[in-house]
Amino acid sequence: MRRKIIAGNWKMNLTLPEAKAIASGLKEKVSSQTAVEVMVFPSALHLHAVAEILSGSPVITGAQNAYPAVLTAMTGEICPAQLSDFGIKTILVGHSERRQFLGETSEICNEKIKFFLNSGVRVVYCIGETLAERESQNTFTVLKDQIKKGLFGIESAKFKDLVIAYEPVWAIGTGKVATPEQAEEAHAFVRKEIGALFVGADKVAESIQILYGGSVKPDNIASLLAKPNIDGGLVGGASQKLDSFLGLIK
Ligand code: 13P
Q1: Class in CATH terms, 5-249
Q2: In terms of Cα–Cα distance, which of 185, 161, 162, 173 is closest to 213?
Q3: 237 CB near ligand 1 (under 6 Å)
Q4: Atom of ligand 1 at shortest range from CA of 215
Q5: Using a 6 Å cutoff on CB, does residue 233 contact ligand 1?
Q6: In a 3-state reduction of DSSP, which class is residue 151?
Q7: Among 86, 129, 178, 179, which is disulfide-ready with 133 (CB 3.0 to 4.6 Å)?
Q8: Is the distance from the beta carbon of residue 224 to the nearest atom of ligand 1 less than 6 Å?
Q9: Is the pLDDT confidence value at 158 over 90?
Q10: What is the pLDDT of residues 9-33, one digit of tens each?
Q11: From atom 7 of ligand 1, which residue's Cα is the shortest distance away?
Q12: Is 236 annotated as belonging to a binding site?
């Protein structure tokens, strides 16, 4: 049985007081009795404060990005060893904004995923097609390529620390959510492709959590989660207000 996850990606939004206020609200309302696993991905600048507020709470604080190396000369970057000072052991990889605007390819994602998993970090790997790719009937080719390249060479035993987030780019921040049927079709495909990665991968495919992201709101989350292959949501806008974040968790 795959546990559902509600993850909030705060992107480059929120001031420090705003981030702290949401974290405090989550700390108050989310308990070990909460059915879903809750994660937040604040700006790197806010990680320390947010992780401190959420310490002792089941809410997981994760980083939106990191560099795949140990402590070294790499100006402007942060690495898992530094994140672990704050107890941070979860990292997003391959968000479409990083793919589109910062040149993060599936090959770079693969390097990061391997390094982070080998460092004992849990990874949420984001994939998804653009509107042009969907309209030209290339959705499944793109997803297959992102899975094959991004997950190339990852050992079976490491998959327990891997979560996939399917985020169609055309649904991100647009208010245009994929229908539960469109999302389910993509999730089922992703699960099938993971199952074909290596001999015996069908078991990891069955247990891996696949989140949907793209204009998820409290009023559409239930219909998405009702689908058999949708194991949670990676949420931008609606996670950046305490009320709607709590609405999603409920
Ligand atoms: P929105 O929920 O704002 O569409 O963002 C989705 C997203 O990119 C989460 O990573």
Answers
A1: alpha beta
A2: 173
A3: yes
A4: 4
A5: no
A6: coil
A7: 129
A8: no
A9: yes
A10: 999 999 999 999 999 999 999 999 9
A11: 236
A12: yes
